[in-house]
Amino acid sequence: MWGTLVRTMVKAGMVKPSSLVKPLSVTRITGRYLAHQEGLPKLPVPPLKQTCDCYLAVLDPVVGPEELNHTRQLVEEFQKPGGVGERLQNGLERRASKTENWLSDWWLQTAYLDYRMPVVIHSSPGVILPRLEFSDRQGQMRYAAKLIAGVLDFKTMIDNETLPVEYLGGKPLCMSQYYQVLSSCRIPGTKRDTVVNYALDKRPPTHITVVHNFQFFVLDVYNSDGTPLTVDQIYMQLEKIWNSSLQSNKEPIGILTSNHRNSWGKAYNNLIKDKTNKESVRAIQKSIFTVCLDAPMPRASDDMYRTRAAVQMLHGGGSRWNSGNRWFDKTLQFIIGEDGTCGLIYEHAPAEGPPIVSLIDHVVEYTKKSEMVRTPMIPLRMPLKLRFNITPEIKRDIEEAKQNMNIMVRELDVKVSVFSHFGKDFPKSQKMSPDAFIQMALQLAYYRMYKRCCSTYESASLRMFRLGRTDTIRSTSIDSARFVKAMDDPTRQNTEKVSLLEKAVKAHRMYTDMAIRGQAIDRHFLGLKLQAIEELSALPEIFLDTSYAVALHYNLSTSQVPAKTNCVMCFGPVVPDGYGVCYNPMETHINFAVSAFNSCQDTNAARLAQALEYALVDMKTLLEQTPKAKL
C-alpha cells in the first residue's frame, strides 16, 4: 500500500526518490531568523483520496474485517464527488491559502490549551541527564551556576539571531520553536489555557526564578550593562538563596500548578486576587526559565537509579518530596538535586523535544568547560524572595493539589533502561533505518505480550514547513503485522522472516517520509474534522465511527528524541491502557524510557521494557543467522 502511495507521490513531485533510500541526516549552518522563516514553504493540505486510501490501510491491522468493511463504505460516501468530504477539503484549502500554517493555531488549541488533564505526566515530558558526582550543596550550587550560564550562552544566540539553522535532507527547518521556549509560560484558565511569551516585550525579562525548599526567588542574571553574570557571580547568588530558604515549613505554592487545569484555573483566579500574590506569580511567569534546587531523594540501587530520576523529572516524587518545588506551567524548568540527580521538565505547548534537546546538548557541553572569566568584585543585590499570602481557601486548594499529586505519583509506572547489546550502528550495518528497526522491535514486543497489533503513534516533525509542529507516523502497518505474526512461527523459514522484516522497515521509512513532507493522514483528518465543526451542523459519520476511535486510541505512544548527550526523555501514556515509550539511540547502546499506569491490570512498564530488549536481540540474531541471498 505504502509503495503505491509513495510511487504516486514521486510522480507528483511531492517526494524525491533519493530521499527514500536512507534516513535523513541533520546538518547545521548559520543564518538569519526572519529571512530564513519567510523562505520556508507552507504546510500542504494532502489530496483527499490519498488520505482516505491511507486511512483504510492503517486500519487493516487494528480493526476486525466487519468494522473495516463498514468504514470502507463510510469512506467511499465521504469522498464522493460534490460530497461532504470535498466541501471540507475545499474549506481547508481556502484556510491554507489565507494563513501562514493552516494547522498550527488549531493544533496548539486542541492538543494543549483545551486539554484539561494536569500537565504533569499527561502532557509535560521530562529529560534525565547523566548522573553527576556531587553529593553536597556546594557541588549542587556550582553545577547549577554553570548550567544557568550555559542556558544564557544559548540565549545569546537566540537574541542575536545567530542560532544555527537546522537542515534535514538538505532542506532548512523552521526555527520558530527555539524562540518560544525562553521567557514563556502557560497561564491557566477555567475552560481553556493561554501561553504568553515575554521575550517579545519592549523590555524582555532579565531574571530567572530559583526555587528551593518550596520558596521562589527572583535572580537577576544580567549586569546593568547587559552582560550576563559570570559563573562565580551566579554561584554566590545561589548561596544567598540557599541560606535564605533553609526553613522548609512554607506552603508548597507551586504544587497548585500540578492540578487538573479547571481546578487550577479557579484556584489561580483566587490566588491572584491578592496584590502581593499576583506580583509574585507574574515574576515567575515572566522569568527566562526556572531552576529547581531539589532535596535529595531516597537512595536507589544503580539499576533503579535512572527510573527514580525519571519520576523526579516527571513529577518530583510527591508532596513529601519535591513536587512542590516546581512551577509546572513554566516552559523550561531545570532540576538539580543535591544528590546529583539532574534533568528538566518542560511544558509542551510551545515546543517539541528536538529544540529542547539541542539546548541541552549545548548546555551540557558548556558545563564541561573550565571557567576562565575573571569575576568583577561588584557587590550584587540580594535575590528577591517572592511572598505569598496564604488564605484558608488557598490552603485548601494546596491540600487538594497535594492529594491529587500523590495519587498521580502512585499511579505512574516507569522503567528506564539502557539497552547495551548494540546501538544504532547495527541497523545501519544492515542498511536499515535505526528508527524503523526500533519501531519494529516495539511492534514485536507488543504483539508477543498481547497477541494483537495496536494503533501506534510516533512523532514526526513538520519543521520543513513554516510554523510546523508534528504529525503522526503510523508504525503499525500491514507489513509490520505480517512480520510480527511470522517472527515466532516455527513453520516459517528464516529467509522469509528477514524478507518480512525488511519490508516492514521499508514501509515505516516510507510512511515517515510521507509524514515529514506533510502527507500523513492524522493532522489532515483533524483539520477536516475541525473544518466540519466550523462549517456543518453535524459531524460526518466517518468521525463518529468506531474505527476512527480505535485509530486514535494509541496503546503505544512513542517518540525518538536523539541527542548527543547520553540522556533520555520520558513522558506518560496517552490512554489509560497504554504505554509511553521514548528512546535516544546512541552509537553502541539505546536509552529507553517506558511508562504505564498502575491502575491498568494489563500494562506493566518493566515487562514491556524486557519484551523490547528480547525483541531487539532476537531481530539481530535473525539477521546474523540468515545468510544473505546472493545477487
Describe this structure in words.
- This protein is α+β, with helices and mostly antiparallel strands and 631 residues long.
- The protein folds into two domains: 47-109 and 420-625, 2-Layer Sandwich (Chloramphenicol Acetyltransferase), CATH 3.30.559; 125-412, Choline/Carnitine o-acyltransferase, domain 2 (Chloramphenicol Acetyltransferase, 2-Layer Sandwich).
- It has 20 helices and 19 strands.
- The protein has helices at residues 2-11, 33-38, 48-59, 65-78, 84-98, 104-113, 137-159, 231-244, 261-271, 275-286, 302-314, 353-368, 392-411, 425-429, 434-450, 478-487, 494-516, 522-535, 546-551, 605-625, and strands spanning 26-29, 126-128, 165-168, 171-172, 184-187, 194-197, 207-212, 215-220, 290-294, 332-337, 342-346, 384-385, 412-419, 456-461, 470-474, 556-560, 568-570, 579-585, 590-597.
- An eight-stranded mixed β-sheet has the order 12-8-7-9-10-11-2-17, with helices on both faces.
- β10 and β11 (342-346) form a beta hairpin.
- The protein is globular and about 75 Å long.
- The protein starts with a helix and ends in a 6-residue tail after the last helix.
- Mean pLDDT is 88; it is low at 1-31.
